[in-house]
Specification:
Length: 338
């Protein structure tokens, strides 16, 4: 077996072999969305253009056949590190061990003492461990069930477990809700700069300090929102404000462009959150209710809510209140380097 490490953009032949492995792994997997590889590639390109990030790709091959791959991503100043884009053929424990050891050698050279895996960015987080009968939804991970063994036998420990919830039209429950002191509105593309600042402020205030959260700058959130614009339906992004116009919460959903059949009938809720002072006061429920009514009006049949940490009960209770059922499960691992 041979290990090769390279930088994206420097060796087209190695890069092509890197991306080709996914087609081999998922060739017979009806739940896999081939479009996901395009999203992963675009994410890598975007990260390469940001200062302070070290990215290195690695492949393990036997003769000319690639059997395992991964990338390491290091935040140079903080030494936070992730291993992402992991793929490997079945029954290749030896090759996977070689891959992880090579990745860890690269990480040590960058001064890293521990890393999380698998993770690519703020959306592609965790290894799927249940719900393999459900289709891969937009901007979510997907992998074969046998990957879990690869991580467990190489010394990774569980960092977080998260769930998705699926709400289907036939099981949807629409509670009677009214909060006269708030108003709801859709994302306003004509005031994009203002909306990005609201998004950044809410994301920071709502999620800072939570397990697994990695802070983003305003510029990074602007790049994120602008990258989502081709996929965005402004009516599926809902902002809650008080009567004075202060933003209290936000819900972001996308049409599931990974769905092969058109018109699209699936959506994914990427994020929902309210300011701490307004949690457990019905604001989140009002956001979900508005979204549910909008999805019904537009002809959607289902929506996936993800991610919800397994030990975070309030969003799980909120999802079940609307008739949602557990969907897929994911596990983010961490490993200490000795």
């Amino acid at each position: 077996m041979r290990v090769k490490a390279f930088n994206f953009g420097e060796n087209p032949t190695l890069e092509q072999r890197f991306w080709q492995l996914a087609k081999t792994v998922y060739g017979q997997d009806k739940q896999w969305a081939p479009q996901s590889e395009e999203y992963y590639s675009d994410s890598i390109k975007a990260m390469q253009n940001r200062p302070g990030i070290h990215i290195r790709a690695l492949i393990v091959s036997r003769e000319v056949k690639v059997i395992a791959r991964a990338v390491i991503i290091v935040m140079v100043e903080s030494h936070q590190a992730w291993l992402g884009l992991f793929e490997a053929l079945e029954n290749e424990s030896g090759a996977v061990q070689v891959l992880f050891e090579a990745c860890e050698g690269e990480l040590r050279q960058q001064g890293v003492s521990k890393y999380s895996a698998p993770r690519l960015d703020h959306q592609i987080i965790g290894l799927q461990t249940a719900g393999f009968d459900l289709p891969q939804s937009i901007m979510t991970p997907h992998n074969p069930a046998y990957y879990e063994q690869y991580f467990q036998e190489n010394g990774f420990l569980v960092q977080t477990r998260s769930l998705s919830f699926i709400v289907r039209k036939e099981k949807l429950n629409l509670p009677e809700l009214s909060l006269p002191w708030i108003k709801l509105r859709h994302f306003n593309l004509s005031k994009l700069t203002d909306e990005i600042e609201i998004f950044h402020g809410l994301q920071t205030a709502v999620f800072q300090g939570r397990k697994g959260y990695v802070a983003r700058t305003l510029a990074q959130d602007e790049a994120l929102i602008r990258s989502l614009l081709p996929l965005l339906d402004p009516e599926l992004v809902i902002i809650a404000e008080n009567k004075k116009g202060k933003a209290l919460g936000i819900l972001i959903a996308l049409p599931d462009h990974y769905q092969s059949r058109k018109p699209l009938t699936r959506a994914r809720i990427l994020s929902i959150g309210t300011l701490r002072d307004y949690q457990a006061k019905g604001v989140g429920a009002m956001l979900v209710l508005r979204l549910a009514k909008t999805l019904l009006k537009k002809g959607y049949q289902s929506a996936e809510v993800s991610w919800v940490l397994k030990d975070n009960q309030p969003p799980q209770l909120l999802s079940r209140r609307f008739g949602a059922e557990p969907g897929r499960e994911f596990c983010l691992y961490q490993k200490q380097l000795t």
